[in-house]
């Protein structure tokens, strides 16, 4: 049999499958290679973006590098990344076709042993700031981030070669303890008066304005010139703040009210009507066409609605759809109402009801009210028929029933008071204590003409008494007060001057400005001078009409024996208030995360300070957390005192920016940084024994290395020791030049404790060590800025540093090394200058 050459169908299919597998394998390999290139590219670009931000921030002045006070928690990572959302918000950057997010955080930092530790942004300036930069991006393997940290130290201070000193007394010649005297020109120059009222601090020579302040006294400013040599004496005599009292009533106008009811205008066949009043600051929609927004309910004494059954609203035809702000609205059983020779158009009238159209029971107990569509009651009233023993309906009742001997008679009016027990025809009928017998005037003969939506609006002078509302003043002495059941408030002990009162009640808020206090007098608020002014002449009623954007913080501060601490300053959400005689405080704050500090700034030096943070506060909410709940707003303070020490150089000059820590039982309980006078203040300490240890650069030498001190008294400052630092951080600065022109493209500057090998073409060495790690050899590096300037912080050393620079003229050209230059910075705070010119 003859064979025919070729391939079978099965062979062809197998061959195609083999080729296809090969193609798939090649494509998979290509995809893997492409992904690997993309991942490497992302890492490289991220590293560049991190480094760029670090160098940019390092070129700022120390005080221009703002510490992060508000962070965003990026919960896409575990643990979450925390970066600034205020001063340095996250940046969206696209590079190389990849979308990056760059976040930055700046923290106060200090070095304890070989460890860098951060401090809260509310702490004193530690003289050192830790820069953390994150760059986040997405690739085929998920979310990634790159993080780099760096440090910036406080620049050297001016030489403190002059002194201010003096005594602080009150106007009667009594010494004032704990008064703060500082220079307005540089708040780092300050001192606190001792038990004899004396103060003293060093400054750089020059002319300054000194400010002296003490709690409960008017501050004083004086100008003086400090010269090298003899100290300059400036004494202060502070006048005690006189005080006065404010009082008044506070009302909330938050809903419409039933302001007038008539069962029949004259005879039994007369017109019946219900008048509504709107005391709020906005118009209220009541209905449109046949669709209601607010329903009217009318009850007889058996709690049934006429004529259609229990809890059925009265069907109405709406002529006008809304009640104006401070205006009236008239509902009747006819299209017009005739009263006292006047004809008033009804805004809405009964419809679809067969005769008789009277729904309000005459000569009988009854009641009526208005409600929303839920229905939730808005307002209501009830009246009795006491002669027959018929009680008023319970359903619409508020408080006690309106007493009536024989039920509503023709020509009889139930009219809401405009003020407590008073009806003024020029003021809106708004008084509403939720007690019918107190709020409503029963008038036997037609006297008051009803109003409708076209009647001229009448401003309310009252409303619902703001029982329990808090009233605070922004003066430095007084504390919060609460309104009683009638809305009455009084705040004693307000400093003389011009202030602002804040009224807070649930979601309603009011600020009353230009409150002028006179010594030893009681002032009604509001009045003719306040903003807003009184609602009527000589009527000190505050109308709380506005919904609030604030959250409210309230709490109590006591000592360890549970005794309230009065007149103690509390900081909450950036506002300061004082506790009252019961230790209670109240403050309105912006919403969000709120920091609360009891005994803010150790204002009362006899007590420690404490702080808490409430997360995510919302508008209108009151946060008051008494024990045993998590007591975020209640504080128990221990007694406290202050330890004062001093840092100096080996040449006995003041050394600012040095950190001291207080240890008790091996644990850190306080830290402080020396000011420009070299002094540090370890505040907020309970009585007891402490070990005071300088927390300096590991290469620094300090004598003594620590000291033990016992704090026996509170409210005063106890001297600790003088610490002499013989080396520490110093500064090398200069300019990089090409001939005589600044190099603007960036030059790497490196200071080394050893001489580097190689020559002009040798690249920079590989850096070793890290944060808090002792280095051998030590390298300190920085890049010059766009002006050709550089600033490099190094540890002071008895041996000179070798300074080098690396410069690349154009991309792709060889990098040229310049140096070494021998630079001496032998003492802490020393500044050396070295320019580099190619």
Strand order of the largest sheet: 23-28-25-18-17-31-32
**Pairing-aware structural class of the strands and helices?**
mainly beta
Estimate the strand proportion.
35-45%
End-to-end gap = 93 Å
Uncertain segments: 305-309, 769-773
What does this structure look like?
The protein starts with 8 loop residues before the first helix and ends with a strand. Among the domains are: 113 residues, no CATH class; 79 residues, Carboxypeptidase-like, regulatory domain (Immunoglobulin-like); 188 residues, no CATH class; 85 residues, Immunoglobulin-like (Sandwich); 109 residues, Immunoglobulin-like (Sandwich), CATH 2.60.40. With 838 residues, it is mainly β. The protein has a 7-stranded mixed β-sheet. Strands 3, 4, 5, 6 and 7 form a 5-stranded antiparallel β-sheet that branches. Strands 16, 33, 36, 39 and 40 form a 5-stranded mixed β-sheet that branches. It is extended.
Keywords:
838 residues, mainly beta, seven-stranded mixed β-sheet
Strand-helix topology:
Blueprint: H1 9-58, E1 71-74, E2 81-84, E3 91-95, E4 98-112, E5 115-119, E6 128-139, E7 142-153, E8 162-170, E9 180-183, E10 190-192, E11 198-203, E12 206-213, E13 220-226, E14 232-233, E15 236-238, E16 243-252, E17 257-262, E18 273-277, E19 284-285, E20 287-288, E21 291-292, E22 295-300, E23 316-318, E24 322-323, E25 328-332, E26 336-339, E27 342-345, E28 348-350, E29 366-371, E30 377-383, E31 413-416, H2 436-439, E32 440-443, E33 464-465, E34 470-473, E35 481-482, E36 488-495, E37 497-505, E38 508-517, E39 522-524, E40 541-544, E41 546-547, E42 551-559, E43 569-572, E44 575-578, E45 584-589, E46 592-598, E47 610-617, E48 622-623, E49 635-637, E50 641-649, E51 659-664, E52 667-673, E53 679-685, E54 688-695, E55 702-703, E56 707-711, E57 717-725, E58 729-738, E59 741-742, E60 748-752, E61 779-783, E62 789-795, E63 801-808, E64 815-823, E65 831-833, E66 836-837
Parallel strand pairs: 8-14, 8-15, 16-39, 16-40, 25-28, 42-48, 42-49, 50-57, 58-65, 58-66
Antiparallel strand pairs: 1-2, 3-4, 4-5, 4-6, 6-7, 8-11, 9-10, 9-12, 12-13, 16-33, 16-36, 17-18, 17-31, 18-25, 19-24, 20-21, 22-29, 23-28, 26-27, 29-30, 31-32, 34-35, 34-37, 37-38, 38-41, 42-45, 43-44, 43-46, 46-47, 50-53, 51-52, 51-54, 54-56, 55-57, 58-59, 58-62, 60-61, 60-63, 63-64
């Amino acid at each position: 049999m003859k064979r025919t050459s070729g391939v079978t169908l099965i062979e062809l299919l197998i061959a195609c499958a083999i080729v296809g597998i090969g193609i798939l394998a090649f494509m998979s390999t290509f995809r893997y290679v492409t992904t690997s290139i993309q991942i490497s590219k992302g890492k490289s670009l991220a590293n560049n973006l991190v480094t760029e931000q670090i160098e940019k921030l390092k070129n700022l002045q120390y005080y221009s590098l703002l510490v992060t006070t508000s962070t965003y928690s990026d919960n896409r990572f575990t643990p979450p990344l925390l970066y600034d959302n205020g001063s340095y918000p996250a940046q969206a950057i696209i590079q190389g076709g990849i979308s990056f997010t760059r976040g930055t955080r700046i923290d106060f930092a200090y070095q304890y042993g070989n460890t860098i530790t951060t401090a809260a942004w509310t702490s004193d300036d530690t003289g050192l700031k830790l820069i953390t930069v994150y760059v986040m991006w997405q690739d085929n393997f998920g979310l990634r981030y790159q993080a780099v940290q760096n440090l910036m130290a406080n620049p050297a201070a001016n030489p403190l070669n002059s002194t201010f000193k003096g005594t602080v007394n009150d106007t009667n010649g009594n010494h004032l303890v704990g008064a703060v005297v500082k220079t307005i020109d540089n708040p780092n120059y300050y001192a606190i008066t001792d038990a004899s009222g004396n103060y003293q601090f060093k400054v750089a020579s020059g002319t300054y304005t000194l400010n002296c302040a003490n709690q409960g006294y008017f501050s004083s400013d004086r100008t003086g010139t400090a010269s090298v040599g003899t100290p300059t004496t400036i004494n202060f005599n502070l006048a005690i703040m006189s005080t006065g009292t404010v009082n008044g009533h506070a009302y909330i106008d938050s809903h419409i009210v039933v302001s007038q009811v008539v069962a029949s205008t004259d005879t039994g066949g007369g017109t019946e009507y219900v008048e509504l009043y709107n005391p709020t600051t906005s118009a209220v929609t009541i209905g449109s066409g046949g669709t209601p927004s607010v329903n009217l309910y009318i009850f007889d004494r058996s709690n049934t609605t006429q004529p259609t059954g229990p809890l059925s609203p009265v069907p109405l035809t709406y002529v006008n759809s809304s009640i104006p702000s401070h205006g009236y609205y008239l509902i009747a059983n006819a299209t017009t109402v005739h009263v006292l020779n006047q004809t008033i158009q009804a805004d809405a009238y009964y419809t679809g009801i067969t005769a008789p159209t009277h729904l309000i029971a005459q000569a009988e107990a009854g009641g009526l009210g208005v409600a929303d569509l839920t229905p939730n009651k808005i307002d209501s009233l009830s009246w009795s028929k006491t002669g027959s023993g018929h009680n008023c309906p319970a359903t619409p009742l508020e408080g006690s029933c309106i007493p009536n001997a024989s039920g509503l008679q023709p020509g009889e009016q139930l009219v809401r008071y405009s003020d407590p027990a008073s009806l003024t025809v020029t003021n809106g009928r708004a008084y509403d204590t939720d007690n019918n017998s107190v709020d409503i005037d029963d008038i036997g003969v037609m006297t008051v003409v009803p109003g409708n939506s076209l009647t001229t609006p009448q401003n309310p002078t009252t409303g619902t008494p703001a029982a329990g509302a808090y009233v605070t003043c922004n003066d430095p002495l007084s504390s919060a007060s609460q309104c009683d059941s009638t809305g009455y408030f009084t705040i004693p002990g307000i400093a003389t001057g011009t202030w602002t009162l804040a009224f807070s009640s649930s979601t309603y808020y009011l600020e009353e400005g230009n409150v002028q206090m006179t010594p030893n007098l009681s002032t009604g608020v509001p009045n003719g001078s306040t903003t807003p002014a009184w609602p009527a002449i000589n009527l000190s009623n505050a109308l709380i009409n506005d919904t609030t954007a604030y959250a409210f913080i309230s709490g109590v501060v006591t000592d360890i024996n549970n005794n309230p601490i009065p007149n103690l300053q509390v900081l909450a959400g950036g506002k300061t208030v004082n506790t009252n005689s019961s230790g209670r405080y109240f403050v309105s704050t912006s919403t969000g995360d709120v920091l609360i500090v009891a005994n803010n700034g150790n204002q009362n030096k006899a007590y420690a300070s404490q702080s808490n943070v409430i997360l995510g506060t919302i508008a209108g909410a009151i946060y008051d957390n008494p024990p045993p709940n998590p007591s975020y707003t209640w504080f128990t303070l221990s007694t406290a005192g202050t330890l004062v020490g001093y840092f100096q150089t080996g040449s006995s000059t003041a050394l600012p920016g040095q950190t001291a820590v207080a240890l008790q039982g091996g644990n850190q309980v306080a830290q402080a940084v020396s000011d420009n006078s070299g002094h540090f203040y370890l505040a907020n300490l309970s009585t007891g024994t402490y070990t005071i240890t300088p927390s300096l650069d590991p290469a620094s030498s300090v004598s003594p290395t620590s000291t033990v001190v016992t704090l026996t008294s509170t409210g005063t400052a106890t001297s600790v020791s003088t610490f002499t630092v013989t080396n520490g951080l110093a500064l090398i600065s200069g300019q990089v030049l090409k001939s005589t022109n600044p190099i603007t493209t960036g030059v790497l500057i490196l200071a080394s404790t050893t001489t580097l090998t190689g020559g002009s073409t040798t690249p920079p060495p590989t850096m070793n060590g890290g944060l808090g790690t002792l280095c051998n050899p030590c390298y300190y590096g920085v890049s010059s800025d766009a002006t050709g300037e550089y600033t490099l912080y190094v540890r002071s050393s008895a041996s000179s540093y070798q300074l080098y620079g690396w410069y690349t003229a154009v991309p792709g050209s060889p990098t040229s090394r310049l140096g070494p230059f021998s630079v001496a910075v032998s003492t802490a705070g020393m500044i050396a200058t070295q320019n580099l010119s190619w």
